[in-house]
Amino acid sequence: MCEYCRGFNEKARVPTTGFKGLNNTHSTVLFTMSKPYDIVYNRIMDITAVVHIPIKIFTLVIVVRYTPPSMRYLSMFLLNGFLWNFVANIMMTFLHPYPMFPAQCFRIDGWFSSIGGEVFRHVMFFFLIICMLNITLANVLTFAYRLCIFHYSDDPTKIRIWRSVATCVASYLGVFVLAAMLYYYSTVSTAAYPLKEELPESEGLFCLKPYGLEKTFTVVLFVVGVVTKLVCVFVLTILLLRRIAKKSGTMQQNILDKHREILWILIMITIVPQNILDKHREILWILIMITIVPVVFGCIPLLVVTATLYNPRLPYGSEIFMACFVVLANHGSLYAVALIVALKPYRDATRRIISNIRNFKLNNGIATARLLFVPRGNE
Question: Which SUPFAM superfamilies does the record cross-reference, listed alphabetically (predicted)?
Answer without folding.
Answer: Family A G protein-coupled receptor-like
